[in-house]
Write a structure and sequence with these properties.
By secondary structure, this protein is mainly beta. It has one helix and ten strands.
């Protein structure tokens, strides 16, 4: 399976990125400062990996639920949108490359959920 590629010049040229997974399923994301982020491999644990050297080395940065939409913002923060499973949507924001998250919006109703469980 081919490696992903990134561009640092608005797609005028491309360079391959080494990733720490044999089976790649999620794209490599690049933040405005050049940091690369990648969700864990398809069959592996829920992880978010980070590289500050264009993919030469990667470090486990924290846990992360695979499959959520991860968007690097110009501010350097990350925005995450879940898939809306069962009609429940959540938007979260991270200021530390996904180490911690703050909920910006959710239509999840805790009281309704707890009442349903009774």
């Amino acid at each position: 399976m081919p490696n992903p590629y990134i561009s640092k010049d608005q797609a005028a040229s491309w360079q391959p990125v080494k990733v720490p997974f044999k089976t790649k399923f999620f794209p490599v994301l690049q933040t405005p400062d050049g940091t690369l982020l990648m969700q864990g491999g398809l069959m592996g644990p829920n992880e978010l990996h980070l590289s500050k050297d264009s993919g030469e080395t990667w470090s486990l940065h924290g846990s992360y639920v695979k499959g959520r939409q991860l968007l690097p913002l110009k501010s350097g923060e990350l925005l995450e949108v879940d898939t809306g499973l069962f009609g429940i949507f959540t938007i979260r924001r991270s200021a530390d490359f996904g180490k911690t998250w703050e909920v910006e919006y959710s239509n999840f109703a805790r009281r309704a959920y707890d009442a349903q469980k009774k």
